[in-house]
Specification:
By secondary structure, the chain is an alpha+beta fold. It has helices at 17-31, 41-47, 63-69, 117-122, 146-152, 161-167, 171-182, 188-197, 206-219, 223-232, 236-239, 241-244, 261-271, 277-285, 290-293, 306-320, 325-336, 349-357, 361-373, 380-391, 405-410, 417-432, 438-452; strands at 6-9, 36-39, 56-59, 74-77, 82-87, 90-96, 98-100, 112-114, 132-134, 139-142, 154-155, 185-186, 294-297, 300-303.
Length: 456
Amino acid sequence: MSTGPVITPLAVPAGTPLQAGAAEVARRLRTAGYTAYWAGGCVRDLILGRTPKDYDIATDAVPDRVQALFGGSVAVGKSFGVVRVPVHGAWYEVATFRRDHDYVDGRHPTTVSFSDPATDASRRDFTINALFLDPVQGIVIDHVDGRADLDRRVVRTVGQPVDRFREDHLRMLRAVRFAATLDFQLDDATAVAIRATAAAIAGVSAERVRDELSRLWIEAVHAGEALELLDDMGLLAVVLPEVAAMKGVEQPPEFHPEGDVFRHTVIMLNSMHTDDVRLAWSVLLHDVGKPPTAKLIDGRFRFERHANVGADMARVILARLRFSNDDTDAIAFMVGNHMRFVNTHEMRRATLRRLVGAPTFPAELELHRLDCQASHGGLENYEYLMAFREQMRTEPVLPAPWVSGHDVMSLGVKEGPQVGVWCKRAYEAQLEGSVADRAALLEWLRGEMQKEGDTG
């Protein structure tokens, strides 16, 4: 026999404009005679003292009534009871309390029926996400012991974990993300079920896996520990087998005293603090080319061309996960070029300016710093590039060229490939600072052409 929900007070502090809008949604529903609670992640975050990124509202009002109460609302999942409503310039999802019926595709219930708060809570993924908050009375309504799990700092499924993961396979990745983001532990039964069901994650759409993993790397308290948890749960070998292959790949101890390639990557991720998805994936994949290139030569492990091989592998991985072409190009470029900072002290000034002027440079520089700190610890090249970038603050790193193709042809070079060659040489000289201005550059260019007999 049910004893009913656990009701506990929660003083909701004055919050953001987003929170004020969520309160207005609830107030309008209550004024019309309906129950209206904040639901899910926002309640969890408020209890933990975190600022919610969004607010969802649960109600006993059916979708047609919700739409009638909120002009401009959009039914985004009417058959599932979900309506998006605009209030004070923001959008809120309002969902009718529901019961989910049989799942057949590992993601969606075949049908739903509208129900009550207790039934709605019982169909949610994890207890910490199944809490309701009455923002008017300032009370938390808990049907699943979710508040106790928050106190215990545990991620636990609502009901039987195997059932929850069979309904939606992505919940296995979500469990890892919540544990890593909140710095919680996985409940024992939940962890056992993930390990037993991990292979099913292969059936989840690439886009959903990509988004979940991207959030994991940038939201986790320690992204390296998140990677280890993903591996421990048996999920890493399914979603990123190329990264799992880094385990046990030894490295030269004089350069990598920290251990194998996987351990090196874990340390880098743990030191990373970013909201840049491209940087996060570059850190994860920067040494993905080491396992297939590893060779023991003269008693030392070597990884010839591992950066180039890694860039090609990164493209395959990112295509599999349906990344955009722009993201793929940027990440693969950083993976393929992460070793080029090694020789910065020997680079010509023009090369340095091109390096620092690249759109990816800030992320590349951070990747280099993390790479060095997680291995030999030397930051000489990083500090050299930081100093050079500081020198360039008073002038454009990559200024507009002083000499055009038309200028080159006016000096007697016939139209064709050589025009581009001379334009490039002129720009290199400009970047090197070996000429003072456009007039001096044109004079230098005329002299060089005469030496090489390249004028008409």
